[in-house]
Amino acid sequence: MHIDLRQLRHFIALAEQRSFVAGAQAVNLSQSAFSRSIQALEHSVGCQLVDRGRKELPPTKQGQVLLEHARRLVSGAQQMANEISQFNGLEAGELRFGCGPAPAAGLIPRAIGSFIGRYPRARVQFQVDDWQSLSKRLMSEEFEFFVADTRYFEADPDYLTHRLRPRKWHFCCRAGHPLAAFDKVSAEQLMSYPLAVSIRPPNLRKVIVDLSGRPDFTPNVECENSSSLLSVVLRSDAIGIVGAYSDALHQAKGDLVCLRIEGLADDLEELYTRYGIVSRAGYRLSPLAQAMIEQIKEIDAVDEEVCSLENFAV
């Protein structure tokens, strides 16, 4: 059986795009050349890899097995090339990692900004996603590490975790909101207005449920982009939840009011993030990955919280 990495890359593109036309475009090939490459791969492995009878072209059982191995092999080949070039002092390799929506709102962009200043020839790709998807992509070797909530990984021997500083979440509203004039508001007052929130991590859901006195709740607006959520809050009577990490708060300075909630202690654990750096146990990180992790730790250690009471109109 002879399989080359180029064919594997084409098969990965087909699985991701679910279309021969889109897959060919993704790898800059003509559709006919792309189709021949997939057919050659199927001939090499001796079986059909996608179900051509279905519109979305799902992988067959054999195709799914090959896809999992293909992603590891392609990622491994890229990592090998990266490490060799990095050890040769070229510092021009490619770094791929992931992060959750909250770190992507402030900490990670600041770390990347410093990183590319030190390694201007490096190529950085970071994917923003939820922790479940990030974990799957880490284990399939698409990423070297990710930055997200660590609570699901700290006790798992397959992962290595490094906790970052906890950052506080705040309930907020626009200046001029009916609740903005109160020194403190009750849970009942808070829950009488629409909620425009990000429900990650799950501990925030517990806080809101406890405040509402209900077994569960459904937010009026839910989004993982902090800038978009702040725009909704600033243009309505919705209550938002913002983290003490978001660069978007610079733009909203003076236009938001931090709400103090009766009965909600400032040191309540659920009001703080539990983010960290997650990598695979037993795997060596590339020099660029190690450098980026050190940069994230450095920024995290010295970075002042963007979100504090002084950042809000009061």
Topology:
Layout: H1 5-17, H2 20-26, H3 31-45, H4 61-87, E1 94-99, H5 101-104, H6 107-118, E2 123-128, H7 131-139, E3 145-149, E4 159-163, E5 169-174, H8 187-191, E6 195-197, H9 202-212, E7 221-222, H10 226-234, E8 239-243, H11 248-252, E9 256-258, E10 275-280, H12 287-302
Parallel strand pairs: 1-2, 1-3, 6-7, 6-8
Antiparallel strand pairs: 3-10, 4-10, 5-8, 5-9
Give a quick summary of the entry.
This protein has helices at 5-17, 20-26, 31-45, 61-87, 101-104, 107-118, 131-139, 187-191, 202-212, 226-234, 248-252, 287-302, and strands at residues 94-99, 123-128, 145-149, 159-163, 169-174, 195-197, 221-222, 239-243, 256-258, 275-280.
Q: Could you characterize the architecture of this molecule?
A:
The protein is an alpha/beta fold. It folds into three domains: 63 residues, Arc Repressor Mutant, subunit A, CATH 1.10.10; 105 residues, Periplasmic binding protein-like II (D-Maltodextrin-Binding Protein, domain 2); 104 residues, 3-Layer(aba) Sandwich (D-Maltodextrin-Binding Protein, domain 2), CATH 3.40.190. It has twelve helices and ten strands. The strands form two sheets. The chain has a five-stranded mixed beta sheet, sandwiched between helices. Helix 2 crosses helix 3 and helix 6 crosses helix 12. The longest helix has 27 residues. The protein starts with a helix and ends in a 12-residue tail after the last helix. The relative contact order is 0.14.
